[in-house]
Amino acid sequence: MSTTVLDTYIARIEEACGEEKDYIIFFRHDKKEEAIAKILEKAIVQKAVAKIIFDLTYKETQIHLYATGKAIFKKVKDKNQLNQILTELFS
Amino acid sequence: MFDPYKIREDFPILKRKINNHPLIYFDNAATSQKPKQVIEAIKEYYEQHNANVHRAVHTLSLEATELYEEAHEETAKFIGAESIEEIIFTRGTTEAINTVAYSWGLRNLKKGDEVLVTLMEHHSNIVPWEILSKIKGFKVRYIDINEDGTLNRQALEKAITPKAKMVCITHVSNVTGVINDVRYAAKLAHENNALILVDGAQSVPHLPINVKELGCDFLAFSGHKMLGPTGIGILYGRREILEEMEPFHGGGEMIREVSYNPKTKSCKVTWNDLPWKFEAGTPNICGGVGLMAAIKYLKNLGMENVQTHECALTEYAIKRLQECRKVKVYGPKDVKIKCGIVPFNIEDFDSHDLALILDTYGIMIRSGFHCAQPLHQKLGIKSSARASFYIYNTQEEIDRLVEVLKEIEQSL
User: Fold this and answer.
1) Which fold, A5-90?
2) Which residues of chain B have pLDDT under 70?
3) N- or C-end of chain B: fewer Cβ atoms within 10 A?
4) Do residue B224 and residue B327 come from a single domain?
5) C-alpha dihedral over B264, B265, B270, B271, to 10 degrees?
6) Which residues of B carry out catalysis?
7) Taking CB atoms and an 8 Å limit, are B350 and A18 in contact across chains?
8) 288-307 in B: which are within 8 Å (CB) of A?
9) Residue B360 to residue A66, Cβ atoms within 8 A
10) What is the ipTM of this complex?
């Protein structure tokens, strides 16, 4: 099985339960700094709070990025759209 | 004397640091941590006694069988059941409820009947009945709740008609911590010839429980929420009802005889005695051993003391959380009618964000619907953050939670 760019950076994706369709992304522990740096390169920082959380936008998607190596992608239509966004961010 | 600081010494995981902060574990409604006594019991079982139970003659099997049956006995005593015949081990609360749905419901429910389910139930006490209703044609009727998350007694009284055959009610809500008056619900159910199934997943680990005093016909709960291992749950059933019920799972262990008749070319199957007729296949023996150690630990603390400690923590948490300008605490605030669970949110803030920020500080809480979406819909909440307490939690940990929440508020 070939390794994709997503396999390189992502350990796990959870669909958050709640009224809105959010996805929680867990980055691979040994790649989390690199993953965060890559996202920060392409997404626009709206707000940063005490280096813990970055409120970002990438195209139409709102992203909350955490220094602990986790992120919430807000109101994403489905997993296909999520994969497309993540692939663009990590490529 | 009940001393949470002394208790903490028994829990190796509480010494951990998460994200460079001391671990504060407030996700006990999802699962509890395990004391070294439980961990040691599991280790000892696998190192010294491991074998399959029942119907073997060798020494190890006898030891394993005795331990497994003793686990049933300890569980029976813990909840005031008459004997081990009323105690069926399952994989968890969910499987215990499914056992009632399929063993009892499949044969006793029909079109025109109603199963009453409260709107504050966990999905595991909703979904099995919804699935079965599509097969059998009965109606699942939902009992309304009040705006504060408590059960609407009038709605319950009105719903219990001769059509109602089963009342499904949680003892303690896994979202608000509301304690339902199960005794009253049981009385109403029995006056109308209905049975009552109580979801005890959030009550048995936290309150003194006696099934005879509650008057319930079935009580389902999980080992892992009460210091035991995952994969072991309990279904208490009144003996006379269990005797009438047919098994849900078929296989080894649960049969007395499977005799082949060459003339008819068919097998005649007879069931084993209670409780084994409901425990098909090799059971979770080690899970039972771990559960027994957990029960002994809790009994040693005294369940009244456990309840008092958690009530004090809940009261303290509600009081302190209300100091935060933007924090909203959901559900009733009176600890006389709730225990151990505090749902909340920061205004205009997503519960998952809140949980992720708290995780940064080593504080573990749960966020989302907590498998109780109808309750959230009824209360008009998108999702909630939930802090839930247990025997090893302290006021200092709540102080730290409030301190961090205030920091978050300031940064918004």
Assistant:
1) TATA-Binding Protein (3.30.310)
2) none
3) N
4) no
5) -150
6) 371
7) yes
8) none
9) yes
10) 0.84
